[in-house]
C-alpha cells in the first residue's frame, strides 16, 4: 500500500494533518506522520530500502532545523515519484517569494494554507489533485481504448496522443506484441487496415477518423439545434470562460473545438509545468468548471536560501 507521509514540527499541525489524511485516505493508503525532520528522513529512507512506495510527502513550510522546501528536496531524492505538498501559514506573506520560486523550479508540486476553513474546501482538493497525478503516473489504469498498429505505424501514436489529451486512458500495442495479437484475435480483426481501435465496450474501429472515434466515445460532433445565440471557436480557457459567461446570461452557446477541451492546458497534459497551475486555477479545475457549470448553463462543447536538510 502506498504511503502518504506528513511532517510538521508544530504538534497541533502534525496531529490535524495526520487526522484528516487518515480520515479520507486510509483504506487506500498508509498514512504516516512525524514531528521531527531527522526522524522523517530516516523513515523515508527505510521505506525506500524496503521498496515501499511513497505517493505523497506533506511538509510545513517553516520548521526549526530544516524548512519545508529543502526537506521536500531531500525527500524527493529518496522517493522521486512522490508528490510534494507544502503547508503554508495563512498570513505568512514572506513565504510568497520562496514558494513561487520552488513551484517554478519544480521543487514542490503544490501547497495549502493552515488553518484551513474545512479540509473539503482547502486540503483535500490539493491532496486529491496531487494523488490523481501520482496515480496516473504510477498505478495501473483501466484503458478505455486499445490501439493496435504496425510497429512502424504513426497513426496509432497520433491517435493515442489525441485520446489521452481528451482524458481517454489509452493503450497502444504493436501487431508484434502478444497483447496486440491477442486483441486482434479476440475480435476477429485482420491486419489489412491499421490502426485498429478496440473500445471498452467492444466497439472495433478500423483506421477511424477523429470524428468517428469521438462519436464512438459519445462526444458530440454535430449541432443538435438549428440555431445558437453564440458560437465560440476553441475550447481553451478563454473559450470555456466565454461559454460559461454566455450560459449564465441565458444565451444558448455552442463551443467548437477541433482538438482537445482545455486548449493549450489540455494539449500539454504531459508537461510538468502545467501540472503546477495551483497558483492560479488548475488545469483540471479550469477544464472541469468549463465542463460542468457550462453544461448546466445551456451550452455545449463539441468536442518555489533556506536552512538545509541532511541527505540520506
Ligand atoms: C508549456 C506551457 C506552460 C504554460 N504554463 C502556464 C502556467 O503555469 N500558468 C498559466 O496561467 N498559463 C500557462 N500557460 C499558458 C496558458 O495555457 C494559455 O495562456 C491559455 O491556454 C490560453 O488560453 P486560450 O483559450 O486563449 O487559448 P488556447 O489555450 O490556445 O485555446 C485555443 C483552442 O482553440 C482551438 N482551436 C484553434 N483553432 C480552431 C479552429 N479553427 N476550430 C476549432 N478549434 C480551434 C485549439 O485547439 C485550442 O483548444 C502555459 C502554456 C504552455 C504552452
Helix and strand run: EHEHEHEHEHEHEHEEHEHEHHE
Count of extended strands: 12
Q: Identify every distinct bound molecule in the structure, by name, code or SMILES.
A: flavin-adenine dinucleotide
Distance between the termini: 23 Å
Overall average pLDDT = 86
Structural class designation: alpha/beta
Could you estimate the helical fraction of the residues in percent?
40-55%
Number of H/I helices? 11
Order the strands across the largest sheet as they lie in space.
2-1-3-4-5
**Structural Rg:** 23 Å
- Uncertain runs are 269-299
Q: Quick one: overall form?
A: globular
Largest sheet: 5 strands, parallel
What percentage of amino acids are in beta strands? 15-25%
Describe this structure in words.
The structure is a single chain. Strand 1 (3-7), helix 1 and strand 2 (30-34) form a beta-alpha-beta unit. The protein has helices at residues 11-25, 37-49, 68-78, 96-104, 119-138, 155-165, 178-186, 210-216, 237-248, 263-267, 283-296, and strands at 3-7, 30-34, 54-60, 83-89, 110-114, 145-149, 170-174, 196-199, 204-206, 230-233, 253-256, 299-301. The model is unreliable at 269-299 (pLDDT under 50). The protein is globular and about 65 Å long. Helix content is 40%, strand content 18%. It starts with a strand and ends in an 11-residue tail after the last strand. It has a 5-stranded parallel sheet, with helices on both faces. A 4-stranded mixed sheet has the order 7-6-8-9, sandwiched between helices. The chain is of the alpha/beta class. Helix 2 packs parallel to helix 3 (68-78) and helix 9 runs parallel beside helix 11. The chain binds flavin-adenine dinucleotide (FAD).
